[in-house]
Amino acid sequence: SAVISQKPSRDICQRGTSLTIQCQVDSQVTMMFWYRQQPGQSLTLIATANQGSEATYESGFVIDKFPISRPNLTFSTLTVSNMSPEDSSIYLCSVSSPAAEAFFGQGTRLTVV
Amino acid sequence: AQSVTQPDIHITVSEGASLELRCNYSYGATPYLFWYVQSPGQGLQLLLKYFSGDTLVQGIKGFEAEFKRSQSSFNLRKPSVHWSDAAEYFCAVGVNSGYALNFGKGTSLLVTP
User: Fold this and answer.
1) Which of A8, A17, A64, B66 maximizes the CB count within 10 A of its CB?
2) Across the strands, what pairs with A13?
3) Tens digit of pLDDT for each residue in A38-62?
4) Which residue of chain A is at minimal alpha-carbon distance from B95?
5) Beta pairing, strands B44-50 & A89-96
């Protein structure tokens, strides 16, 4: 199994500002994933972060809004840029084991005011 | 198009009663299948998974699920529900090892005394 630590666990931010979320894994993994869970909704994949290459974004998500870094095999960051109230969500980091089992961080609960 | 459907948005059961949460998927091949639970303010916890083999899989907390290829279903069951089972339940599908998951919209379970 993998242990994933996310920081911050929650934050309240002013609209127009940016927040960077950190994700640390206790083992080396090839791919890390960032999901968004809007209030009362399911999880939606934002992007896949590969070490050594640019992240791959899903339809509806763009790099300018959600820039991602992946400097090594155990760490990634997701930035939510120029925030608006619509960005209020839980953001989750995830990794998959070789057995295709996904592990999730506790999430970052973001409120934009 | 690939999809995961959880037909029931909300389900209410009495404590001690049996439970079945439905999940249907639409994929070209047999996918990796998962059930996750999310308690209020908590992260996602894996209940069980199916990759291959025995179509009836046992999970944690007394849950089980049965894969039925002919019905493209992976329903979650529990013979006797406890009040602590009240949570949001997500069915998820993966197409390959190391890939992101596609989540259903979730079923909210309410347990009454």
Assistant:
1) B66
2) A112
3) 988 889 999 999 888 889 999 999 9
4) A100
5) unpaired
